[in-house]
Write a structure and sequence with these properties.
By secondary structure, the chain is of the alpha/beta class. It is built from 8 helices and 6 strands, in the order βααααβαβαβαββα. Helix 1 packs across helix 3.
Length: about 200
């Protein structure tokens, strides 16, 4: 099968990263506290304006994209899937990766370097436009993705009519349910769901 895997929120725990770093940053710099720790977006967590949001990521983006580790068992499960003959497609909407300038080239390089350093091997990587909400849908159609693993509701809802989607279970996507949508809290659970999907396909 062709398996698509998201990066931010799936291969990494971006919510965990933000909850480790953002409270101190916003308290010290803007005297803000967490309003709701469950939303996907920093702006909703702190009810902060765009300039504060950008200031946070200007400080922490490089740390996140270089040092945040891959989730537990991600490397082992992906290796097992490839050994079993599945094709792995990294499909990401990470900020800036589609820009045709130095920043875009740097972000694409850092992404590939991060995957290499974390031992995550893949058959292809596709960078999607972060400004287009459902940009991953077209990629899944073009790559004939059978199963997509994602955490963001807008992606899951756009892809589930055309492929099976495994929703990586987080506090910000608890209401994401429907046909072709499965939930998993670990890469071991992801593996078991993919195995069942493959067995049913055969």
């Amino acid at each position: 099968m062709n398996i698509g895997i998201d990066v931010d929120g799936v291969l990494t725990d971006i919510q965990g990263f933000n909850l480790r770093h953002a409270p101190h940053f916003f308290k010290k710099k803007y005297n803000r506290s967490v309003v709701d720790k469950n939303p996907f977006d920093i702006r909703d967590i702190f009810k902060c304006p765009e300039n504060e949001y950008l200031a946070y990521w200007n400080k922490y983006l490089l740390k996140y994209v270089t040092l945040e580790p891959a989730r537990k068992d991600a490397k082992a499960v992906i290796k097992k899937l490839r050994n079993e003959g599945h094709k792995i497609y990294i499909i990401t909407k990470r900020v800036h990766v589609c820009k045709d300038n130095f920043l875009g080239k740097l972000m694409r390089f850092l992404m590939k370097n991060w995957l290499w350093r974390n031992g995550i091997k893949y058959d292809d990587i596709v960078f999607c436009d972060n400004d287009i909400p459902d940009s991953k849908r077209a990629v899944c159609l073009a790559k004939k993705i059978d199963v997509m693993i994602d955490d963001e509701i807008v992606n899951i809802e756009a892809i589930s009519p055309i492929a099976k989607v495994i929703c990586f279970d987080t506090s910000y996507n608890q209401n994401c349910k429907g046909k072709n949508i499965f939930c998993a809290k670990s890469f071991e659970k992801i593996y078991s769901i993919i195995k069942k999907c493959h067995d049913l396909k055969d």
